Amino acid sequence: MMRDVKLILLGAPGAGKGTQAEIISKNYAIPAISTGAIIRAAIKNGTEMGKAAREYTDRGALVPDSVVIGIIKERLAEPDCAGGFILDGFPRTVPQAQALDEMGVEITDVISIEVPDESILERMGGRRVCKACGATYHVKYNPSPLGDRCACGEALTIRADDDPEVVKSRLVTYHEQTEPLKEYYSAKGKLKIVIGQEKLEDTTALVSAALDA
Ligand SMILES: [Zn+2]
After folding, report:
1. CA 63, CA 93: separation in Å to the nearest integer?
2. Residue 149: helix, strand or coil by DSSP?
């Protein structure tokens, strides 16, 4: 019988966490909970915590931990989380992890998907998008037949999130604020490390093996 999986996925931006979350979600039939998405949903649905979050987002401020944690709590109380869940993008800091513990949320597994910064910079920095037709390319791995133009003829652009300076600064934040969670969960005997592979399916196989171990 398949056990309940209550998983936290850790990994730098661009390490492929979101993609793996989707795959595990399908394989284990448990929801993948992305913090950004549930905050937007709570605001849209006007839940108690959604209303609290709105007071911050309306003025362009960051939603504070206390409210984010409240929204996570609301989401985890929904029936589809009873048999397990995947948290993607939360906790991001040790205080958030402590808050999760204080909330009584039991986590069974923490998987850190590790990809060297240089690889992330190469992957993200090489991405190109077409604003006209939505096609995506990579200068090295999936180049457009027309070079710096899309197959449709439009000039290709770099998304703001893929700008190397933006990626670098997000990596610094990850190493400083989120990576200490590895030690936090390792001390609880829950941490498993997966080395991100070049091929998506190879990483997926390692993640599955880590969950079955
Ligand atoms: Zn195009």
Report:
1. 14
2. strand
| Predicted model pTM | 0.86
Residue 182 Cα to ligand 1 middle (Å): 41
Supply the pLDDT for residue 103: 87
Mark whether 199 is an active-site residue. Answer: no
Domains (ranges, CATH) in the chain?
A: 5-30+83-208 (3.40.50.300)
b vs e for 146-182, b when ≥16 Cβ sit within 10 Å of the residue's Cβ?
eeeebeeeeebebeeebeeebbeebbeebeeebeebe
Q: What is the mean pLDDT of residues 57-73?
A: 88
DSSP SS3 for 150 = coil
150 alpha carbon – ligand 1 mean position (Å): 5
Distance CA 141, CA 131 (A): 20
The confidence band for 57, taking pLDDT boundaries of 50, 70 and 90, is confident
